[in-house]
Design a protein that fits this description.
The chain is mostly helical. It has 5 helices and 2 strands. The protein has one domain. Helices cover 80% and strands 5% of the residues.
């Protein structure tokens, strides 16, 4: 149950980000749910590999480079999911920043549920 709640809250976070970040577009709840699933799968596979490879850069940038990797995963997901589009790396980066902040809030909510 907690996994489904986290998935739905992540999709809602994508919708919130689409209202806050120019160039970040989600066309409804269904594409947001699919995009949240795809982003999660990409982060668990390709993203994990990239984070391991770029670990020295992440240390030098005090972890800020991880936001770039998350932005690349969001950009990759936008090319795979119809109804979810990101206009470039800069909107993907800012989307990753806002999603990281919303993710902290989501984890706090799911932890209490």
């Amino acid at each position: 149950m907690r996994l489904i709640l986290h998935w739905i809250l992540s999709a809602l976070a994508l919708i919130v980000v689409s209202h806050l970040v120019p160039g970040f577009h989600v066309r409804g709840l269904a594409p947001a749910l699919i995009a949240a699933l795809v982003i999660g799968l990409l982060n668990a596979t390709v993203g994990l590999f990239l984070k391991i490879i770029t670990f020295p850069i992440s240390i030098l940038t005090l972890g800020l480079f991880l936001l770039v990797i998350n932005g690349v995963m969001i950009l990759l997901a936008s090319s795979l999911v119809p109804g979810f589009s990101v206009a470039g790396l800069l909107p993907a980066f800012w989307g990753a920043v806002v999603l990281a902040l919303l993710g902290m809030l989501i984890r706090a909510i799911v932890k209490d549920a």
